[in-house]
Structure to design on (174 residues):
């Protein structure tokens, strides 16, 4: 009999040792940490704190057509800059006609992230389908909505390759 009870205590101690093991509990409860960078804010937190957003001025000088890839832009450095100061994880981009797209980047939304989000909506449109095909810039109107930027568009960008092509067509007609 005594041999049986000693066997049971050994089994009991082994089982109880496993269940109270702290390393097992840690593994089960572990979650991956967010991959967001330090200093990048959630836009809703900024609204609660009343922090103002500043929009990068470079967006006004891009003269980017909404249906062309942002990779075709000459100013590659501007694409790497944060769209807003302080940088945010995501921001809604609202078009005057009602369309709304969201630019997201856990390390901070850059100008390229915003242009990519816009391009995704317009890449299948032909030039003549777009009434205002060129990006004029963004506007932040905290009275209307703290969490979104209004997208401004214009008819034509600064004279670039597009103007030269028209002249060539005119010479062929003569």
């Amino acid at each position: 009999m005594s041999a049986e009870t000693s066997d049971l205590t050994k089994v009991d101690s082994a089982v109880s040792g496993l269940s109270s093991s702290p390393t097992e509990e840690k593994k089960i409860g572990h979650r991956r940490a967010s991959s967001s960078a330090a200093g990048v804010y959630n836009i809703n937190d900024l609204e609660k704190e009343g922090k103002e957003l500043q929009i990068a001025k470079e967006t006004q000088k891009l003269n980017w057509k909404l249906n062309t890839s942002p990779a075709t832009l000459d100013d590659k450095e501007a694409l790497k800059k944060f769209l807003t100061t302080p940088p945010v994880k995501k921001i809604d981009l609202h078009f005057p006609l009602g369309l709304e797209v969201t630019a997201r980047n856990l390390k901070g939304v850059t100008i390229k992230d915003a242009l990519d989000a816009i391009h995704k909506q317009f890449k299948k449109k032909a030039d003549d389908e777009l009434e205002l095909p060129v990006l004029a810039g963004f506007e932040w109107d905290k009275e209307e909505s703290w969490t979104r930027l209004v997208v401004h568009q214009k008819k034509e960008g600064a004279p670039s390759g597009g103007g030269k092509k028209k002249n060539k067509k005119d010479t062929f007609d003569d």
About this structure: Confidence is low (pLDDT under 50) at residues 160-174.
